[in-house]
Amino acid sequence: AQRVTQPEKLLSVFKGAPVELKCNYSYSGSPELFWYVQYSRQRLQLLLRHISRESIKGFTADLNKGETSFHLKKPFAQEEDSAMYYCALIDFNKFYFGSGTKLNVKP
Amino acid sequence: DGGITQSPKYLFRKEGQNVTLSCEQNLNHDAMYWYRQDPGQGLRLIYYSQIVNDFQKGDIAEGYSVSREKKESFPLTVTSAQKNPTAFYLCASSTASHQPQHFGDGTRLSIL
Description:
The structure holds two protein chains of two kinds. Chain A is mainly β. Chain A is built from no helices and eleven strands. In chain A, a hairpin with a 6-residue loop joins strand 5 and strand 6. Chain B is an all-beta fold. Chain B has strands at 4-7, 10-13, 19-25, 31-37, 43-51, 54-57, 64-66, 76-78, 87-94, 102-103, 107-111. The radius of gyration of chain B is 13 Å and the shape is globular. The model of chain B has no long low-confidence stretch (mean pLDDT 92). The termini of chain B are far apart.
């Protein structure tokens, strides 16, 4: 069963525009969700986790249990934000990753 | 940078041959994982290990085998039973199984 869905394969925005990368999940109970990012020629790395409720590099993500979503948002995109973004969920000690969204921030 | 080292970066396999991908970590992490990444499909879990001498199958374990004889090492063998082994393989580790994972650079496996 698909636990994490990222509906957009590619998202292109202009520098300074707001960006929202969508993530929907299916899980009964209280999910633990993460966003991972992979910049060009770098390793996949943790961007943020919902239990931390922090903002990393200007990104935030709010868990919406009613809509089963964990969308990643940034009010003003920068060119250096261009990367692959993966949403992930933990279920019984296993991580489930979405298929990823490629964010392209144009100058 | 250090942390998790995967080798080789590129690997070629002949039909009917077993190959082993190396994953070593110096982070003193208990948990280690192997993922397979195919275009448009994200990461899929092959095997994971929460502690030395123990490992469990992930969602796509068929055709793969692992061992966890040492805390720092978690090699993955792609056997001849894996009919579609061409993919990008990622190794990860974490302090515990519910904690965020640290990833290696990956190994790209291709069939000759």
